[in-house]
Amino acid sequence: MTKQNTETAPGLMTAEDGVVYCAWHAAMPEYHGSEWGRPVADDVRLFEKICLEGFQSGMAWITILRKRENFRAAFDGFDFHRVARYGDDDIARLMADAGIVRNRAKIVSVINNAQRAIELIEEAGSLAAWFWQFEPAAKDRPKVVTLDFWQAHPTSEASIALSRALKQRGWSYVGPTTIYAFMQAMGLVNDHLTGCICRERIETARKAFKRPVQ
Fold first, then answer.
1. What pTM, to 2 d.p., does this model score?
2. Which residues are known catalytic residues?
């Protein structure tokens, strides 16, 4: 990889210190550099992310990211055991909360999905163990990830399978595109572009990560 290639490759940017990142690093440097793509095995974080991806549907992710702390406060830190018990008063409270996205269908979906999450833990032992079984094999992933690949693959075979399995279990707002974004963010795949320094860091983190099992 030469300096010329990293500077000219579509979808990449060179920071002032000369470090190369995915171009969207400029808009969300902390999220891109320290969070996105790092493997996660914590059930609450996994549940939070799948809910926020549902809220993001039809919107820009940066809008949701800016409201994330408001969402956490509104939904009891995405403790799905608590959210599963929400009723009409909670829905009314959330619909009145200007700090979050006030979409009734998406709010009700979070409550439904919290109830389904508890059922899934009874089935698999943890959300993490169940989600991580859908991690694609290395042979099914591209060796080079380019902007063209990103744009041509808003879903994957794994995200389609995971989406289908969730829908069969009654989850909502979990379409294949939403689920692929979830998989990218939670480290089930490494979609930092080839040339981005974070791609190498994520590969190191994934190699050291202990996959949860059922």
1. 0.94
2. 31, 53, 61
